[in-house]
Design a protein that fits this description.
The structure holds two protein chains of two kinds. Chain A is built from no helices and eleven strands. Chain A is an all-beta fold. Chain A is globular, with a radius of gyration of 13 Å. Chain B is an all-beta fold. In chain B, the strands form two sheets. In chain B, strands 2, 4, 5, 9, 10 and 11 form a six-stranded mixed β-sheet that branches. In chain B, strands 1-3-8-7-6 form a five-stranded antiparallel β-sheet, with no helix packed on it. The chains are: A mainly beta, B mainly beta. Chains A and B meet through strand 5, strand 9 and strand 10 of A and strand 4 and strand 5 of B.
């Protein structure tokens, strides 16, 4: 049972390049999330999904797009990378059971934009 | 929306001492309060959580207390060990799946 797996773990991009971050979970969770973590800023929600084929904006969605074509996968895209998007990106998932449920996080993707 | 304040941002203790991290929240309807531990190079991992119908919960050296009237909750770690060194995040949510996180506390336990 791998939990939440993020690929790649590290990436360096040039300004203007595009890329896709992949998140996969094997816990059959309905909800999935993308966060970015910057020093002193905690975890900020970029986009989230409550089920296959559905996505919604979080706190800091500008410059990012997402897709959830399969329940187990949640993709985060940067169409034209900017230095301000240098960050550590975390994917998380959670069950939709009765009441609030804890989130399960991957180990992050460290992204540098030059 | 919900606002979660977490203090202190950095906490330095000697091994064996206790550590306390405090969070306040703004929305009285919040009813679920998890705590996450993030080790260097890893993602946050749930260590303990509490729901609004409970005032205190313990798990070995870790405990969480909740004061709904004052809208604050705290993480207590007793007999700290070097492996407790990490960043700790509190969060609050209210019947939805979108938690609001505090900005984190860096706990340093000196041997």
């Amino acid at each position: 049972n791998a939990g939440v797996t993020q690929t790649p773990k590290f990436r360096v991009l040039k300004t203007g390049q595009s890329m896709t971050l992949l998140c996969a979970q094997d816990m059959n969770h309905e909800y999935m999330y993308w966060y970015r973590q910057d020093p002193g800023m905690g975890l900020r929600l970029i986009h989230y999904s409550v089920g296959e084929g559905t996505t919604a904006k979080g706190e800091v969605p500008d410059g990012y797009n997402v897709s959830r074509l399969k329940k187990q996968n949640f993709l985060l895209g940067l169409e034209s990378a900017a230095p301000s998007q240098t960050s550590v990106y975390f994917c998380a998932s959670s069950h939709s059971g009765r009441g609030n449920q804890p989130q399960h996080f991957g180990d992050g993707t460290r992204l540098s934009i030059l | 929306g919900e606002n979660v304040e977490q203090h202190p941002s950095t906490l330095s203790v000697q091994e064996g001492d206790s550590a306390v991290i405090k969070c306040t929240y703004s929305d009285s309807a919040s009813n679920y309060f998890p705590w996450y531990k993030q080790e260097l190079g890893k993602g946050p991992q749930l260590i303990i959580d509490i729901r609004s119908n409970v005032g205190e919960k313990k798990d070995q050296r870790i405990a969480v207390t909740l004061n709904k009237t004052a809208k604050h909750f705290s993480l207590h770690i007793t007999e700290t060990q070097p492996e407790d060194s990490a960043v700790y995040f509190c969060a609050a949510s209210k019947g939805s799946y979108i938690p609001t996180f505090g900005r984190g506390t860096s706990l340093i336990v000196h041997p």
